[in-house]
Amino acid sequence: MQVEGFLDRDRGTGLWLLGPELYLLGAGSASRYDVTDVALPFVQRLAHITGESAFFSARRGDETVCLLREDGSFPIRSHVLYEGIRFPLGVASAGQAVLAHLSDAEIDAYLAGHDLADTYGPAHEEKEVRERIQQTRRCGYSVNPGLLVAGSWGMGAVVFDRAENPAWALSLTGVDHRFAPDRQPELGALLLDAARQLTIAVRK
Question: Which residues form the IclR-ED domain (predicted)?
């Protein structure tokens, strides 16, 4: 692996690191899979309009990974999400939104194979997750009422690929009083509009 360039070894520490060939492979596939340049202005606009922290995440199998973060003007921030962090579907607001837009059969198979409550607590029992799926389907956007960190709320909306699969998500996070019930429809409408426009943009 080292000879082929897939691994490299730090001479000082002896630790194995990802090698330069992986960088070249990633660069070669970026034009096909990397849509962060397209998503960035949408994330920035959401942060600017709402004052909250805005994010763009991608689905990778049974997880979402955060690719972009833009902080808004509100001085108190949530630091639950950052670029590179991964969560299983159904946990953070992005993953909640993606999970809700899968088929019933896909949801059943996913929940049968993942015990979210074992890692993330009783709020992620299957019954609770299914209730949030139904709420997301009714509203179009997900709401995470401080399930990861108390007092840190999030909302998310799905971005679809050309095959109508829920491939990405836009989300907002902030302190609980900024996501009060009377403001959620406003934030949800902004997320859904941005997600719709980004869906169109990534298909071009």
Answer: 21-204
